[in-house]
Amino acid sequence: MAISYTLVQRKDMSRGALEDAKLYYAQAVSTRRVEFDDLCDEIAETCTLTSADIKAVLDRVIWGMVTHLKNSEIVQFGDLGNFRIAVGSAGSASPEEFTATMLRKPKVVFHPGKRLQEMRDVAKFARFTVDKDDGTDGGGV
Q: Which sequence ranges are marked TM in the entry (predicted)?
């Protein structure tokens, strides 16, 4: 198993680059979407819970996470990692000039746990290519 990537050409933003210079950069390619129900079914196959049990638990996990994140709490989720809220804003010249309307939409920030970090450390890569000979939209690695 390998992480699929393709190459995309973008403007060279390095100092001293010619105005029309372009470089190729790797970009991850998602090969498919795993639907929630399918993931729950896969998990149910590896334990004594049913798919419905797993869906119920995950529904309550999301409810709990939302509750704690709304209270500016960090939610530590075992080997999965941590979730927290991040807030940004436009700048103001002084604290007195700052208003709540300057706040941007909050973001949920995820920091991967140990197992996900280890997966990144040992990741293998495969270049994704589209077979142009047969005229189909499929691709391969």
A: none
DSSP state of 106: P
The tokens of 85 are what? 């809220």
Q: What does pTM read for this prediction?
A: 0.72
> What's the CA gap between 2 and 45, in Å, rounded?
24
Report residue 84 as tokens.
């927290």
Query: Please, which residues bridge with residue 108 across strands?
Result: 85
Tokens of 94: 């002084």
Tens digit of pLDDT for each residue in 14-30? 888 888 888 888 999 99
Residue partners of 95: CB distance under 8 A and separation at least 6? none
pLDDT band at 135; cut points 50, 70, 90: low
* Residue 25 Ramachandran class (φ > 0 left, ψ -120 to 50 alpha, else beta): beta
- What confidence tens digit (pLDDT) does each residue in 102-131 have? 999 999 999 999 999 999 999 999 998 877
